[in-house]
Amino acid sequence: MLRPWTFSQNPRQILRQCRQLHNTAARLAQATNSDASSTIATPKWTADSIRTGLVAKKRGMTVMWDNNGVRVPVTVLQLENCQVTANIVYKRPNQTEYHAVQLGASDRPSRTTTHQMKGHFRKANVPPKYIVREFPVTPDAHVPIGTTLSAIHFVPGQYVDVIANSIGKGFQGTMKRWNFKGLRASHGVSVSHRSAGATGAHQDPGRVWPGKKMAGRLGGERITVQNLTVMRVDSQLDLIFLKGAVPGVDDAQVLIRDAKKKLVSVAKAHQAQGEYEQVLPKGVDDLPFPAGTKEMAKNLPATIEAPSKRVTSPFVPRE
């Protein structure tokens, strides 16, 4: 609608205003179309993407048999209401940005939670948690706050890294701590055959060098076990079965993420060479992106197992 004062202006000014109205309408239409496309189109995982990890509890070890009858020792990890509590974007002094997804796991009573953390969880609209950890991600891998993650975040057949505190063994000697072979158990050594032996370097330098391997406290350190295979995923009980051992005692909190060496780095290398069929491990077609959620698990089978890596069956005699 043209206002009365418009007719008092010259035609050039009227044309300029009409162009401004047209450009504004075009920008609004473009923004509306982009918003609609973003709500409809789902983001896709690429080799340059780094997804968030998960916070789980170690439940213990057991064994399973694949479809060829191969016995595989596995560690069972379980998710306990793992939810997104924050998305972190921090600008470093060198003008680069740090992106991370903060997760909370294992609900705890409100009476045992500090007031500061109560406010943090209230802002995220999630119940209080026992453990809160963050995982560095790429800018396209942020997850909406309050999202509940599922065990299908990891696909059977892929490789993961597990981070946890190792079992504390207390004060131990050099044979157990550093695998020293010990001294002779006879011919004058007597009962000191498990000792470390001489630690000094005679008169020069006349002292023990820093970093000398000696008796001391063993275990209780942050350990990362790399390149463990996901053998099975149970979305109903939120169980993840990993091939091999995981550090920590039973019921300890562990961090799981995509393997940096056998998945992330290998995917980037294959994509750079144009070998797109080898970007993901054998038997893995795609990864849930930006994360595997409870809503996504409703459309998938309750239990998914990885295909056997063995080519032949052990029960069939060889020709």
Helix/strand order, N-terminal first: HEEEEHEEEHEEEEHHE
Low-confidence stretches: 1-9, 14-29, 31-40
**Cα end-to-end separation:** 88 Å
Task: Give me the count of strands.
Answer: 12
Strand content: 25-35%
Q: Helices and strands: which structural class? A: alpha+beta
Mean pLDDT: 87
Description:
One of its GO terms (molecular function) is structural constituent of ribosome. InterPro entries: Ribosomal_uL3, Ribosomal_uL3_bac/org-type, Ribosomal_uL3_CS, Transl_B-barrel_sf. This is Large ribosomal subunit protein uL3m. This protein has 5 helices and 12 strands. It is α+β, with helices and mostly antiparallel strands. A hairpin with a 5-residue loop joins strand 1 and strand 2.
Features:
alpha+beta, ribosomal protein, 28% strand, mitochondrion, transit peptide, three-stranded antiparallel beta sheet, 12 strands, 19% helix
